[in-house]
Amino acid sequence: MRAYVAVAEAGSFTGAAQRLGMAPQLVSKYVRVLEDQLDAQLFNRSTRSVRLTETGAGYLRKCTQLLDDFDELAAAVRQDHRAPQGKLIIAAPSTYGELFLADAIADFALKYPKVQIDLQLSDRYVNLLDEGVDVAIRIGHLDDSSFIARKLTDARLIYCASPQYLAHNGIPQRPEDLSDHACILDANFRMGNSWPFVDQNGARKIEVSGHLKANSAGAARRFALKDGGVLLCPEYVVENDLRDGALAPVLERYWPERLGVFAVYLENRHLSAKVRVFIDFMRAALA
Question: Is the residue at 72 inside a domain?
Answer without folding.
Answer: no
